[in-house]
Amino acid sequence: MHCKNVAMVSRDTLLARTLQTTFAGEGFNVIMVADVSALPLETTSAIILESDSPEEPRLYQKLHQGPHVPILALVSGGDVERVSALRAGADDCMTRPVNTDELAARIRKLIARVGPEDAGLPHEARPITVNNLCIDPVGYRVRVGERDVALTLREFNLLLVLASRKGKVVSRQELIDRVWGDCHLDSDRTIDVHICRLRRKIEPDSLRPGRLVLVRGLGYKLER
What we know:
The protein is α/β, with parallel strands linked by helices. It contains 7 helices and 12 strands. It has helices at residues 13-23, 56-63, 79-88, 100-112, 153-164, 172-180, 189-202, and strands spanning 5-9, 29-33, 44-50, 71-75, 92-95, 128-130, 133-136, 141-144, 147-149, 170-171, 212-215, 219-222. The strands form 3 sheets. The protein has a 5-stranded parallel β-sheet, with helices on both faces. A 4-stranded antiparallel β-sheet has the order 6-7-8-9, covered by helices on one side. The chain has a 3-stranded antiparallel β-sheet with strand order 10-12-11. α5 crosses α6 and α5 packs across α7 (189-202). The longest helix has 14 residues, at 189-202. It is globular and about 50 Å long. The termini are far apart.
């Protein structure tokens, strides 16, 4: 049985208690840890991360070395801080002070999208290969040649949608519908941020992308 732990890398005990009450009847257990090294990733369904630390990139890098666990960042600030958290590796982001009901709804949505049974994504169990890029939809694994590539959940699902339509343009709206569902996006730039992060990880030269291509006015495509 999949354990529904929600881990908070935070010292906000009041928020943790409120979330525990909110999730009490849904089988979720909210746990608090002071450092990412103490996270039980194998039994964690989602992570809430205070994202104002100067060591933020290191924290995300460490988290991405383990199993694919969606991360929701809590930031104090505006667009700059939210974009910074998304660039660093967050799958979703909220600005403090947060509405607890909205936070809980976003966590539920992230958890619901973890499994390969997600209705918005391809169900094929066989890996998708595009040149030297291989995507395993079941194992949530991506390789470029002989190199394993660590992706966030959003990055993986975005790449999976594009790979399932390789060589064809996927509109921004379709990417939003299939990867973000009914989660609210502050702007279309969220997609661009994720594409830029993907390019840095899978392109030979992210400044001259030849794999993840923008088709102006239409959307993106993954070249064959």
